[in-house]
Amino acid sequence: MAPRKLAAGNWKMNGDLAALAEIDLLREAYPDPGCEVLICPPALLVHPMKERVGAHKMTVGGQDCHANASGAHTGDISAVQLKDAGAAYVILGHSERRADHGETDADVAAKAAAAHGAGLIAIICVGETEAQRDADETLAVIGAQLAGSLPDGASAANTVIAYEPVWAIGTGRTPTNEQIAEVHAFMREQLQGRVSDAGDVALLYGGSVKPGNATEIFAIAHVDGALVGGASLKAADFGGIISALEAAG
Ligand SMILES: O=C[C@H](O)COP(=O)(O)O
């Protein structure tokens, strides 16, 4: 098995029922996409989006889950509930959750274990801040986040890793191709010994991916797709990224 090719959209706290019209546009433009296409809308939209996707092979995911399957956790959503609503994936440990909700690597590992238990594929996010990159700590930070956030039992079938430099998210700035290549090769190496099929785990790049830079980014070794924020909100933009991934070797 080779790593899955995945164009993943993260709508973050954007979108409403009317925005599901974008799904119709994607279905029409890509009736049989040559890569996996995933959209992770706000939790309220997971079920209606899945209904809108219908028989199309596009998948839907959550943006977070609780580590427990149920219980007294007001405002939280479990992996089991996401699965029940039609999700196939869940994003975990996004830097916005690490910053806004104080999520630690151990929290992310527990959530990923819950996701796996519920039959969801966990997209585990890692990435350095600008200060950490300036201090030449990038690989140490990524190595520690990976080691702490990967649960036992992670495999290419149930886990995807997304490298998202915090300073590149929503800023229009991206690392150089060499910087992305260095981190992705490092992540591949770090997975050895932790995951039996480390060579087959999909590694996504995320942070200001647009139709205009996607082709270049997908040509970098060990980049198997993208986790896209702003440019996933409109089918016209996300479509450009899907097309670039379809065309990537
Ligand atoms: O999860 C997606 C990332 O945070 C990237 O967001 P962006 O594409 O808006 O920079």
TrEMBL record:
It is an enzyme of class 5 (isomerase). Pathway: Carbohydrate metabolism; erythritol degradation; Carbohydrate biosynthesis; gluconeogenesis; Carbohydrate degradation; glycolysis; D-glyceraldehyde 3-phosphate from glycerone phosphate: step 1/1. The active site is at 94 (electrophile), 164 (proton acceptor). GO terms for cellular component: cytosol. Signal peptide: none annotated. Its EC number is 5.3.1.1. It catalyses: L-erythrulose 1-phosphate = D-erythrulose 4-phosphate; D-glyceraldehyde 3-phosphate = dihydroxyacetone phosphate. It is found in: Cytoplasm. The keyword Isomerase applies. Substrate binds at residues 10-12, 170, 208, 229-230. PROSITE patterns: TIM_1, TIM_2. Belongs to the triosephosphate isomerase family. PANTHER family: TRIOSEPHOSPHATE ISOMERASE (PTHR21139). This is Triosephosphate isomerase.
